[in-house]
Amino acid sequence: MGRDSMSLPGFLLASASRYPGHEVVVQGERRISYELLARKAAAVASFLRSEGIVAAGDRVGLCIENSPEYLLAYFGILAAGGVVVPVSNQATSRGLESVLKDCGTTALITQKSVLKAVSEAIPGLPALKTVIVAGKRDVEDDRSGKAPAAGSIAGRRQYTLAEVGAGNGVDSAMHRAKPDDLAMIIYTSGTTAAPKGVMLTHRNLVANAESIVQYLKLTDADRVMVVLPFYYSYGNSLLTTHVLVGGTLVVETSFMYPNVVLERMVKEHATGFAGVPSTFAILLNRSNIRNCRLPALRYVTQAGGAMSPAHARLLSEVLPGTDIYIMYGQTEATARLTYLDPEDLPRKYGSIGKAIPGVKITLVTEHGTPAASGETGEIVAEGDNIMAGYWNRAEETANVLEGNRLHTGDLARADEEGYLFIVGRNSEMIKSGAHRISPKEIEEVILEIPDIHETAVVGASDEILGEVIHAYVVTKDNRPIDPRAILLHCRNNLPPYKLPKKVHFVASLPKTQSGKVKKHELPRV
Amino acid sequence: MEVKSELRRFIVENFLFGNTESPLGDDDSFMQKGILDSTGILEVVSFIEEKFGIAVDDQDLVPENLDSINNISAFVSRKSGAKV
After folding, report:
1. Which domain holds residue B61?
2. Could you tell me the pTM of the whole model?
3. Which of A17, A329, A342, A453 has its CA at a distance of 20 to 30 angstroms from the CA of residue A394?
4. Eight-state DSSP code of residue A435
């Protein structure tokens, strides 16, 4: 591959030229070829550039569920020289506003189901000039060259993605990104209420994709079943790696009915499947997986937590001949930092393995010295995949980045052979299913209810999801209130996965002398 | 009717927190409407197993059986032979 492959649009162009007829994305009965996606993405890019909607470096929101349209918008934005800012399509107006405002997004590509939230968010988004709305079959839509007509939404220009992608784009119109140009800003929950924008360059995304392709041995014959949302770094890594090799993304928008996903895997001859611990817990405990024949399934990957020995053994029994990769990473490292070779799994249960190709991992003790074998230290990582920093947050960037060294905040120890085992986190973040959730954000929403005096939100352990959200609440004068009123307010202001599972009413919260809530003293049950 | 009203009460209480402003239709898809997720549906399954005394097998966990009040009601009736 030539130099073009050193940027994300270059991945698409290179694969479209090598494998024009290969399927890049399959959804239901829809099968989209590399040639079609590349042609349409060039048309989107040409329009965004020529209409002055996107100039190099402009941030563009992308709020679409997993679909061919997501890929069209993604590569269209990048090929126009824009920076993709993915947002959950379950986001409320509040969530949209906080992210899009933070990075001064000038355009947003979204779908109909989100438009109500978008209109509500717009008054708080002075920089946003253009909204482009995706439909259900925009990639295949072939209305030749009809000039897009601008409508309006809450006083901003509005177009449809079908029209925007209908023009004649040419590959040469694609912006040539340089390796250090920003490609994406992915927002993550931290210990602060407002999410932080992780700035990823083309170099970051290219380096991590190449490394993952190498250790998973991905080729153009690979077809991965995607149930993880593309707007998170894990899902995004499935997208970048498969487009790099000319492979296929088989997408489902929901994992609510795992049997439907399994059927798709059988029908589509999926060679790979990616999940988080809860995905595999559900597959093993409540699905038809034992009656499914999946001879094409070459490997599965799990990130977001180690796999318990019991689950790893069960999964090996249920999927004989399928490699199980346990992986670890962070959005700040594009996606991936370590993996455990499947051959090592039976003797290294609970381990996250070793550094991926191109990454160096050091464990650093609290005294700043390298940890000895068996000693606990913070995982510090170096490599081309380490983010450029947090958008507009110099202080928080300086807290985690020391040159190109990323302080992950995760604590681990290494055994005598150098295999890493996570022992804890030094952050309050709640890990529930595939989500990382900031307790602060939920606390702020609960505190908006007039009768609440104070609250502390914690993660309680859960067999399936890893953790679920529990809210401890002190009401004013300990007045009784209906817990449903709290949950309803949360439901109206937070996406479903951020809703507390349980509300505990307490007379007071345990505190330190300086008044800080001692969350570790709250029962996690 | 009883299965439907019991189900509706359970879902409104536990997933909509008593909110009846946007009414839940008997044919509304729990998945499309974003009412339930992959663990929510498992809670509903536990509820119908316990409440209506039926056993839900792993292969029964498909949208045709579970993705709306009407689908569950018909499924419960097939499983139990009960009048609904």
Report:
1. 2-80
2. 0.90
3. A329
4. E
The secondary structure of chain B in percent helix, strand, coil, rounded to multiples of 5, reads: 55, 0, 45
Chain B contact for A259, CB < 8 A?
yes
Burial class (CB in 10 A: 0-12, 13-18, 19+), A515: exposed
Residues 182-221 of A with CB under 8 A from B: none
What total number of domains does chain B contain? 1
Whichever domain contains B59, its CATH number is 1.10.1200.10
Q: What is the mean pLDDT of chain B?
A: 88
Taking the C-alpha atoms of residue A221 and residue A209, their distance in angstroms, rounded to an integer, is 17
What is the structure's pLDDT at A2? Answer: 43
Which among A256, A464, A488 is the nearest to B36, CB-wise?
Answer: A256
Closest C-alpha among A66, A98, A61, A102 to residue A83: A61
DSSP classification of residue A193: S
pLDDT (mean) for A45-74: 96
What phi and psi values does residue A72 have, to the nearest 5 degrees? -60, -50
A74 touches A54 (CB < 8 A): no
Confidence of residue A3 (pLDDT cuts 50, 70, 90): very low
Q: A151-194, pLDDT tens digit by residue?
A: 999 999 999 999 999 877 665 667 788 999 999 999 997 666 68
